[in-house]
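During the no-cost extension, the postdoctoral fellow (Dr. R.K.) reprocessed legacy sequence entries with the updated structure-token encoder. One reprocessed record is reproduced below for audit purposes.
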Amino acid sequence: MLRSEEMTICDVYIQSDAAFENISRLGELECVQFLDMNPSVSPVDRHFVPDLCRCADLERSLIMIKDDMVKEDVVIPRLRGIYDIKPLHPRDMFEFENMLDSVVKDVKDMTANHSNLIKLMSETREIYYVLNHLDPILGDVEAGYTKFPKTMRVGAGTGAYDRRQLKIITGVIDRSLTYHFQTMLWRISHGTIYYKDAARDEKFQNLATGRDVRKVAFVIVCPGEELQQRILKVCNGFNVNLYRWPETHEDRVSTINELAKRMVEMDKVLQRTKVQRMATFRTIAQQWENWLTQVRKAKAIYYQLNLFNFDISSNTLIGQCWLADRNFNKVESALEISSASSSARSFIVRTYTEATPPTSYRTNRFTEGFQNVTCSYDYGRYRELNPAIFSVILFPFLFGVMCGDVGHGLLIFIYGIWMINNEKKYASRRSRNDVWNIIFAGRYMILLMGLFTIFMGFMYNEWFSQAIKLMAAYWLNTSDPNTISKSSFITLNPKADTGFVYLFGIDPGIKIAANGLSHENSVKMKLAVIIGLSHMTLGLILNICNIIYFRKFYAILCHSVPRLLFIWCIYGWLVYMFFYKWILSFYTKQMDFRAYWPTLSAEFLDLIFWRNISLDCWPRITQAVANNPNLLPAMTLFARDLSDRMETKVILYHVALLCFPIMAFASPIYLYTRHMMSVRRLENSGEYGECQIDAFKKQQGVDFKTLLTHRLVRTMEYGLATVSHMASYLRLWAISVAHTVMARLLWHSTMRTLALRDLTPAGSRKIVLVFPIWATATVFFLVLMDGIAMFIHVLRLQWIEFMSKFFKGGGIPFVPFSLATILDDLDFRHCDEETEALCKQRRVRASAGDF
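Re-encoded structure tokens follow.
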């Protein structure tokens, strides 16, 4: 797992009659990546295109059936052991096609009958609604209009129209369109029509969208055929459903009664049809996923077979594939077993190529999540060190440094344990929820993140933002009760009586101190710098391991050693000063040197700007000795230590400066010199002509200007990255402090303020009411949302600050043929798109008679 798998390229010879079984067996092994042996052959002209298109047609039919089932809310059950289902064999293809055609025909017939019944029912309801709600408006008006009521005023004019020329138009329209509809009618008729809506609208189903819309019945009375035709065109533009008005009042009454009876009968027929249709869909749903799996697997196998070259003379398929060396015997055995019933055996042989092998990482259930996170950034070069192995510990540790709370870590740890305990249950199923799939794949990562969060919670002494006293405190109360009763805060002097040093984590006395947060800030900031330097140093050491493996030994002295020296001369000195100051403060309790000690920022500026800022404390030292001559020996040692550190800083400064020209010029000079020596050896040998020597120069491609420019850019980039990367590690400090402050603020604003301060019997009831609020906010805000933010920040530190030191990436991912991954809707989508385009092109050519 430390490096990518050793890969080999092989020639595969498969007998045509055993090709399907051979590729199916290799798809189950999931360890072979086939190469295209026919790049110059059009995809539509390949040997297995007809079989591929047959499978595509079957899949399209199954998806059409699924769409109909989804519309009816039929649940398709998820089958267990779906990965064990065998692909649809060629000998069963014809029988399966006939069976599926029969199913599709039945579904289409039922769907068509159901749609016709719904359409007829909708039209019947609309007619019934029109006749019922417009009858009070028109009364006993007859279609001949000889008895048209004289009281009805037609138009806005004089009404001097022959009532026998009046035309009645009735129908229903969408309620939201009525205003625009009336406006258009007014414009084309100039106010010479009579328009009236029904008193009440009703809901009707829109057959195109399946949604309910509100429609209202209307009646239009217009004079003349010409105006009637114009109104009918407007109705057609507004998608109005028009219905003929019965000639007499008696016809209308009889029609209404007949429609009422018909709707009752149609409702019964619809119910029976729906029950029968749902029963059929449920029967199909039990086998639908099984059928789709068989078809998709068969389609994937034919897609791979099209990558082979078909030798007609020997009836053999010849292909090439990449596979890991350790799997060669397994593949060879699988081919032998799957071709046992064939006339000749299929076999595989190793071959040679100058192509770069793909990158394949060996994983297990534990490392799979870490590997996926690493590969989402980039795939490594062939045989390059695998960063995922180091992420197993480093990634959750950095997360724990940011989170650092025992309680929050327990919640994360329990969730990880739950997923691991249910691993078999959920691993055997395919979920359509992508978020759950991602979380479940990283279950072991979540488990370790919880463990390291618990560990750092002990170190920070954070238990749901509260401090716990695990051992005797360092700070002792030396004040009398009088002083304590008069003051909200008391000052504890480290020179006074104290206990033994708090050995594990942060002293709980610091947590309740007024300057406690400042102390935690200081500790966490220094811890972030120490972790950052260690993390980047590990990356540079791993780079040396890569250099040794790829046998580029010159890069150790030209690149790696100067980089290590530079980073340690700058930040290593700062880390040394952290420990030096801590140790000195511990052993000089009775003599407080902090009044005379230069700040760490001053020490760092001494190193960066080569100045003696530290000696600014000399006046304070002289004054202290003058006031107390007994301090002279100790102060003399302290002053000598300051001078020695200044000399050390000057040396470190010069070493750091020297690293830059080495990183910039050493590698180009060495490579160019080695190249020129090789050219001279060729020239002195006398065995090669000028053309061959020029060809050698072009093949090597060594140009001093190019090498120098490239190296100068990389050196400047490293110098700037050294500063920016160390600053980036300070997010460990900032996010940890922010998480702690938010947790304390949530506790104080809920549990402490609303419940715990009440010491009356009602306080216990308040705890019961407030605790769920605090717990919910803790889980969703501090653990879930803040945890996601921390995860992203750790990704940055792992990908950029750490991996950039040794990981170049740019590798070719190894994508083995797998019959399991094709069951995911997102996988092999390119294959589906190619297949659809291929089959469409084939149908076009078939219709043109090209086949």
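The beta strands are 7-15, 33-35, 166-174, 194-197, 202-205, 212-223, 241-243, 309-311, 316-324, 347-350. The two ends are 51 Å apart (CA to CA). The remaining legacy entries will be reprocessed before the final report is submitted.
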